[in-house]
Amino acid sequence: MVEIYGIKNCNTVKKALDWLKEHEIAYTFHDFKKEPAKEEKLTEWAEKVSWEQLVNKKGTTWRKLTKEEQDSVKDTSSAIRVLSVNNSMIKRPIIEYNNLVLLGFDDNIYLSTLKVPQ
């Protein structure tokens, strides 16, 4: 089963959800607005992908941080601390599947990684 994490009104999350539906892949969606990601889950993801990949530095939430707050994000623990209170700054969607963590939406990676029914 695919677990997908994100914010329902995010365009990239919408693309991923549409892709999963189109390919008839069962999934469970976790909306950060209703179920914020906790430090334990962020730590789990950071063990599989780098903390730099988890932090969305292109988004509005990152840009709203002060220079000092941005500069304080320099390693896994500081990133997890900031992401746990700013879930909208997490790169999304995050997909968990077979002990893998995928970030963002990429049709080719989804096709090669997620089990598509024949």
From TrEMBL:
It comes from the Bacteria. Pfam families: ArsC (PF03960). InterPro entries: Arsenate_reductase-like, Thioredoxin-like_sf, Tscrpt_reg_Spx/MgsR. NCBIfam families: arsC_related. Belongs to the ArsC family. This is Spx/MgsR family RNA polymerase-binding regulatory protein. It comes from Sphingobacterium olei. The lineage of its organism: Bacteria, Pseudomonadati, Bacteroidota, Sphingobacteriia, Sphingobacteriales.
